[in-house]
Each structure stands twice: as C-alpha cells, then as structure tokens.
TrEMBL record:
<comment type="similarity">
    <text>Belongs to the sigma-70 factor family. ECF subfamily.</text>
</comment>
<dbReference type="GO" id="GO:0003677">
    <property type="term" value="F:DNA binding"/>
</dbReference>
<dbReference type="InterPro" id="IPR013324">
    <property type="entry name" value="RNA_pol_sigma_r3/r4-like"/>
</dbReference>
<dbReference type="InterPro" id="IPR036388">
    <property type="entry name" value="WH-like_DNA-bd_sf"/>
</dbReference>
<keyword id="KW-0805">Transcription regulation</keyword>
<keyword id="KW-0731">Sigma factor</keyword>
<dbReference type="InterPro" id="IPR013249">
    <property type="entry name" value="RNA_pol_sigma70_r4_t2"/>
</dbReference>
<feature type="domain" description="RNA polymerase sigma factor 70 region 4 type 2">
    <location>
        <begin position="126"/>
        <end position="176"/>
    </location>
</feature>
<protein>
    <submittedName>
        <fullName>RNA polymerase sigma-70 factor</fullName>
    </submittedName>
</protein>
<dbReference type="InterPro" id="IPR014284">
    <property type="entry name" value="RNA_pol_sigma-70_dom"/>
</dbReference>
<dbReference type="InterPro" id="IPR039425">
    <property type="entry name" value="RNA_pol_sigma-70-like"/>
</dbReference>
<dbReference type="InterPro" id="IPR014327">
    <property type="entry name" value="RNA_pol_sigma70_bacteroid"/>
</dbReference>
<keyword id="KW-0804">Transcription</keyword>
<feature type="domain" description="RNA polymerase sigma-70 region 2">
    <location>
        <begin position="27"/>
        <end position="89"/>
    </location>
</feature>
<dbReference type="Pfam" id="PF04542">
    <property type="entry name" value="Sigma70_r2"/>
</dbReference>
<dbReference type="GO" id="GO:0006352">
    <property type="term" value="P:DNA-templated transcription initiation"/>
</dbReference>
<dbReference type="Pfam" id="PF08281">
    <property type="entry name" value="Sigma70_r4_2"/>
</dbReference>
Length: 191
C-alpha cells in the first residue's frame, strides 16, 4: 500500500476504476476529513455532514466506470459534494418550512475561488462537448472542421463537395444550438 500513497489522485482513481479497493481507501483518507469540514460548515450538523460525505464516496465507487476524468479528480469530488449538500437541503426544505430558500445557494459552499472557476470551466467544457456530440452528423463534422481544424467555409465546402451556403447554414445551426445550451448552463451555474 505504501507505494500507492505517492500516486496522484488521478492515478489512484484509474486504479479504482480497475476495482482497486486499496486505491479507493487512499482517496477516501485523503479527502474524508476535508469534505466533512466543508459539509459541516454548510449543514451545521455532524451526522448530516458525515452522511453527505459518505454518499459522495458511495457514488464515486458506484459510478467509477462512468466517470471520464478531464481534469483533476478533486474538482469532481467537490462537485459531487455540492450536489449531495444541495440534495440534503432540498429534503430539509420539504420537511421544514423554517429553512429559507436563499440558504440553498450552492455558491455558499466554501471552495477556493480558483477551484470554483476551474470546476465551472470543466462543467462548461463537458456540456459543450456533449452538445457538439449531439449535433447531427453533417453539422457536427462541419463545425469541428471549422473550429477544431481552423478551416474556412470555402475550404470545408471544397473538401466535402457541398455548397458554401450549406456550410454556412450548418455552422449557424451549430452555433445557435451551442449558444442556447451555454445560456441554459449559465443559468444552472448561477443557481
């Protein structure tokens, strides 16, 4: 186990995805106390804080095969914590009329400003990738040729043997879909 202690979070999570329970225990030990502290600050109840953090780790293990890290693992863990705290606060609201809705602000969970910005960036990046992948095949191909390969509409039209107007129409369509998705995501990020 000692040789695994020196591994990065991302290396350990790769091992977790391979069903390595020792790597999972190391991650648990690295994050448990810090997550409890953050949860306790927001929830003001030790039992609730422990439950929320336990749910984070249960879900991390349960969904490990479905998580494709595109950044640091800690941002995914903190995002999971935020969602678990929000879920518990929603339950409290339903159970008690004393909790005010303004107390549900996810932004009040104490994280470093840089951590928050990076988490939001990763969420936005994942959503954009998801939206682009959901575009119709021709639209997606044209958009990627334009944005990822830096090709002009004329170059794309020549390479795909389609009209310049078709390329422009497909690009406008892709940009409109992306713009709408980003606007929806911004609303969710500011909740």
């Amino acid at each position: 186990m000692a040789h695994k202690d020196g591994k990065s979070d991302e290396e350990l999570f790769f091992l977790v995805q391979q069903e390595d329970s020792i790597a999972f225990s190391i991650l648990y030990d690295r994050y448990w106390q810090h997550l409890i502290k953050k949860s306790l600050h927001k929830l003001q109840d030790q039992s609730d804080a422990e439950e929320v953090v336990q749910n984070v780790f249960v879900n991390l293990w349960k969904w490990k095969a479905n998580i494709a890290l595109k950044g640091h693992l800690k941002y995914y863990i903190y995002t999971m914590l935020r969602h678990e705290i929000f879920r518990l606060l929603e339950i409290r609201v339903r159970e008690s009329s004393h909790l005010q809705l303004d107390e549900l602000s996810l932004n009040s969970i104490p994280l470093d400003h840089a951590d928050m910005q990076h988490m939001e960036y990763l969420e936005l990046q994942d959503q954009i990738t998801h939206v682009i992948d959901g575009l119709p095949e021709k639209c997606r191909l044209i958009f990627k040729m334009s944005r990822e390969e830096g090709m002009t509409a004329k170059q794309i039209a020549e390479q795909l043997d389609i009209s310049h107007r078709t390329v422009e129409t497909q690009l406008r369509k892709a940009i409109r879909v992306l713009k709408n998705a980003i606007q929806r995501l911004q609303v969710l990020l500011f909740l």
